[in-house]
Amino acid sequence: MNNTSKLFELAKSARQNAHAPYSNFPVGVAILSKEGHFYSGCNVENISYPCGSCAETGAIAAMVAGGDKQITEILVLAEGSELITPCGACRQRIKEFSTPQTLIHLANASGVQKTCTIAELLPLAFAEKDLIK
Ligand code: THU
Question: Which superfamily is assigned to 3-130 in CATH?
């Protein structure tokens, strides 16, 4: 199985475990880090709606807890007739651990529908250079 297929299977399995009773919109995310490790996450909602977290947040937290800081490939899996893309906040979260070469796969149950870069998803991003005084 190639890396993208493995990411798809991991995201699918994470999505099945999503806790999304309020939106009924389960999302699964899987990451392959530069070190060759795989991580996954799902969205976790809460009866107090703002306490919920996105699937990307969970997967990135798992990667950082696992000791890795660079994403080689990330796959976001959700269902919809339109192409599903990460929310604005998650684009910024992905950017923190991406390089210009990082592959961001956008998938639905049928498979990867589009692969893009962080520059395409988050042009003119707030970055380290902006903090230089
Ligand atoms: N969601 C994600 O997990 N990732 C995104 O990039 C977009 C939105 C979740 C949050 C919430 O649990 C549900 O999808 C509906 O917004």
Answer: Cytidine Deaminase, domain 2 (3.40.140.10)
Q: Does the global pTM surpass 0.90? A: yes
Average pLDDT value over all residues in the chain = 96
pLDDT in tens, 104-118: 999 999 999 999 999
Q: Which residues line ligand 1 (CB under 6 A)?
A: 20, 23, 25, 27, 43, 45, 52, 54-56, 86-87, 90
Do residues 119 and 95 lie in contact, with contact meaning Cβ atoms separated by under 8 Å? no
